[in-house]
Structure formats: structure tokens, C-alpha cells
């Protein structure tokens, strides 16, 4: 009934207002959070699918908000992309992650997530060169993870930047593979070094829905057939690991091996691995 509709509108209005208020506050807080040292990187290992040896770590951003506690990237990255703060924040991530990786054995790689807005800033190549130079990390140890959305936006500028980065020896990974609109021509045009199979497919590999399972296997096979380093992400069970291994996946990553952890946890894990 009409009356109900109006009632519902009046009911939701304050909630919406509250939501926008919370969002504005978060945005304001974010502006000072870098200077206040509230951001931290956690690191999750990716391992050789056949041997289980650590190949490197992906950096994942965390925000320790003074009032709200731990805030996950899903909550603040979209905001930071909208208000442009992702550019200085992304620069902080690159510098911090490279500085950390400089302490690891030199055969380990560091993977860093990039947002579309970082490509639009035109500063990206300079920032990457700076982070490598300051840390002394060799370019081939750095892996930049981009999703298809990065490439969909203004693809000429992105193509140029990716080409320059690869020219430096930096590796480029396609993240969340299978969730977007990759066509064959697209995969050929952008010379990725690594393809990360989205965890939704990895999850289906051991699921009970037969069709979904077949589709997931097909996605893995397709990725493997492209001849790049293929990484299965979000591996939570041995069964998933075994299937990825059987299909020829090169690397695996997920809670089955390790959750993301602070830099101190990485140091411990590496000491353990060195003794083993
Ligand atoms: P992503 O790059 O796809 O990262 C993988 C996400 O899956 C991470 O969530 C990770 O903690 C989680 N994950 C890893 N293994 C498992 C597993 O076995 N099971 C499950 N259920 N989840 C797993 P997180 O840390 O919350 O990050 C979410 C997204 O935020 C990332 O997705 C990435 O797109 C973005 N992000 C994180 N750090 C950064 C950053 O420094 N810069 C940018 N631009 N984006 C970032
Ligand atoms: Ca990623
Ligand atoms: Ca991913
Ligand atoms: Ca993702």
C-alpha cells in the first residue's frame, strides 16, 4: 500500500544519513592515517604447488583505526579510490612492501596490489622506480597485481605504463582471473607474467555442484594452457591444493598454507623454513 511505502521511506532515511555520515568520517580520518602510522601491511605467502616451498609474499593492507579497530581493505580501498587518497596510500604501500622484502632471502618475490587510479596518476612508473631504488630490491622480485578493471579503464595509458614497468623487469600479474571479461585477444595484448585464478573457482573445485566444478576445472586448465605462472588463490583445503597441482598450477596461496600476517610473522616463518 501507498502508506506503507512512505512509512518505509521515513524509516530508512535516518539510516542512510547515518551511513553517509560514517563514510564522511572514515574519509576524513583516512587523510591523516598515513602520517599517524595507522596503516600496516600484512603478508600472505604463495608457495610452489609441487614442493610447497615459499616463492614470495603478497602484501595486503590493514588499517588500525584508533576508534574502530581493525578496518579491512574491502571497507576503505573503494573509498580511497573515489577520493584519490589511493595514490599517496599506494605509494606508501609500494615503499613499505619493498623495504620489507629487502630483508628477505633474495629469491623471494613481493606481490603488491594496484588500483586503477594509480595508473591514472601518471606517477606510477616513477614511484615504482623510486621504491626499488630506495629498497635495493631487484625489479624481477617485484610483482604488480592488477585486475581486469585496471585494463578496461583507459587502456592506452595503462598499456604504456605496463610496458614501461615490464621493460624495467618488473612482473605483472592478472588478479582475480575468471571474474571479469577477459577475452583471448585481451590476454594476448597484455603480456602478463602470472595469472591468479580467483578463489571463487578454487572453492568450487572441491564443491558438490558438479557443473560448477567442471567450469572451475576448465578455468584452471585454460589459465594453465596460457603458459604463464598460474597461481590458485584462496586454497583452503588439501583437496583443492591436490586438484590445482594435478592440473599443473605453478603456485598456490590461501589459508590452507597461511593467513596473511604481520612482518614479524614473516620473519618467524622464514627462520622456520631456513631450519627445515
Ligand atoms: P585480493 O588481492 O584478491 O586479495 C586476496 C584476499 O583474499 C585478501 O583479502 C586475503 O586475505 C583473502 N584470502 C587469502 N586467502 C584466503 C583463503 O584461503 N580464504 C579466504 N576466504 N580468503 C582468503 P583482504 O586482505 O581483505 O583484501 C581484499 C582486497 O583488497 C584484495 O583482494 C585487494 O583487491 C584489495 N587490497 C588489499 N591490499 C591492497 C593494497 O595495498 N592496494 C590495493 N589497491 N588494493 C588492496
Ligand atoms: Ca591480489
Ligand atoms: Ca585475488
Ligand atoms: Ca580481489
From TrEMBL:
Domain EAL: from-to ranges: 23-274
Protein name from the UniProt record: EAL domain-containing protein
Lineage, highest ranks first: Bacteria, Pseudomonadati, Pseudomonadota, Alphaproteobacteria, Hyphomicrobiales
Full-protein positions shown: 554 to 829 of 834
Amino acid at each position: 500500500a501507498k502508506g506503507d511505502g512512505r512509512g518505509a521511506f521515513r524509516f530508512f532515511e535516518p539510516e542512510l544519513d547515518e551511513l553517509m555520515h560514517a563514510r564522511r568520517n572514515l574519509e576524513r580520518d583516512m587523510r591523516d592515517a598515513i602520517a599517524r602510522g595507522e596503516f600496516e601491511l600484512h603478508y600472505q605467502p604463495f608457495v610452489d604447488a609441487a614442493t610447497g616451498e615459499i616463492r614470495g609474499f603478497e602484501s595486503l593492507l590493514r588499517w588500525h583505526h584508533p576508534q574502530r579497530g581493525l578496518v579491512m581493505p574491502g571497507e576503505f580501498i573503494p573509498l580511497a579510490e573515489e577520493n584519490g587518497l589511493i595514490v599517496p596510500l599506494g605509494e606508501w604501500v609500494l615503499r613499505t612492501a619493498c623495504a620489507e622484502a629487502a630483508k628477505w632471502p633474495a629469491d623471494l618475490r613481493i606481490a603488491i596490489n594496484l588500483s586503477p587510479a594509480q595508473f591514472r596518476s601518471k606517477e606510477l612508473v616513477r614511484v615504482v622506480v623510486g621504491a626499488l631504488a630506495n629498497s635495493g630490491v631487484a625489479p624481477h622480485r617485484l610483482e604488480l597485481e592488477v585486475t581486469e578493471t585496471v585494463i578496461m579503464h583507459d587502456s592506452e595509458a595503462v598499456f604504456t605504463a605496463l610496458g614501461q614497468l615490464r621493460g624495467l623487469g618488473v612482473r605483472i600479474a592478472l588478479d582475480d582471473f575468471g571474474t571479469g571479461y577477459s577475452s583471448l585477444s585481451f590476454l594476448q595484448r597484455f603480456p602478463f607474467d602470472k595469472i591468479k585464478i580467483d578463489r571463487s573457482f578454487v572453492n568450487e573445485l572441491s564443491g558438490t555442484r558438479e557443473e560448477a566444478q567442471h567450469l572451475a576445472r576448465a578455468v584452471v586448465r585454460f589459465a594453465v594452457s596460457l603458459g604463464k605462472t598460474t597461481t590458485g588463490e584462496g586454497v583452503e583445503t588439501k583437496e583443492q591444493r591436490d586438484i590445482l597441482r594435478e592440473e599443473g598450477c605453478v603456485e598456490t596461496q590461501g589459508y590452507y598454507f597461511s593467513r596473511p600476517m604481520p612482518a614479524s610473522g614473516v620473519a618467524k616463518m622464514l627462520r622456520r623454513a631456513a631450519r627445515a
